[in-house]
UniProtKB/TrEMBL annotation:
SUPFAM superfamilies: Glyoxalase/Bleomycin resistance protein/Dihydroxybiphenyl dioxygenase
InterPro entries: Glyas_Bleomycin-R_OHBP_Dase, Glyas_Fos-R_dOase_dom, VOC_core
Native species: Ohtaekwangia koreensis
The name this protein goes by in its record: VOC domain-containing protein
Chain ranges of the VOC domain: 6-120
Length: 122
């Protein structure tokens, strides 16, 4: 069973997310969405995406982690992966959520970093 297939997103806290987005765009050419072709799915109608996004410092989206960042990893078959991770003793946070752009689940690593798992609809 495949587990992580790529980076889905990089999220971090910022005092001024708008200013950070503008700075990164102006100086490094970074936009919020990186589009790319998944070489394992070249027939995909839409490109795959990796999201880059600063969040406000007071966001609770990274909770229960107290870290100022959160990684999002692309996965296949999220429901099965969450089941296996739980059996392996990994802390699973909340219930899987489904949106038109994919399914999401959350876990904690041994140091309390919240990790978002994303089964995208590419």
């Amino acid at each position: 069973m495949k587990r992580v297939t790529g980076i889905g997103g990089i999220f971090f806290k910022s005092e001024d997310p708008k200013k950070m987005k503008e700075w990164y765009a102006a100086h490094l050419g970074i936009q919020e969405v990186f589009k790319w072709t998944d070489i394992e799915k070249p027939e995909a109608k839409e490109p795959a995406q990796t999201i880059w996004s600063p969040f406000k410092n007071d966001t609770t989206y990274f909770s229960p982690s107290d870290k100022p960042y959160m990684f999002n990893y692309r996965v296949e078959n999220l429901a099965e992966l969450l089941r296996v991770l739980k059996e392996e003793g990994v802390t699973v946070i909340g219930e899987m959520q489904e949106f038109p752009y994919g399914k999401f689940g959350w876990i904690l690593d041994p140091e309390g970093n919240k990790i978002e798992l994303w089964e995208p609809v590419d």
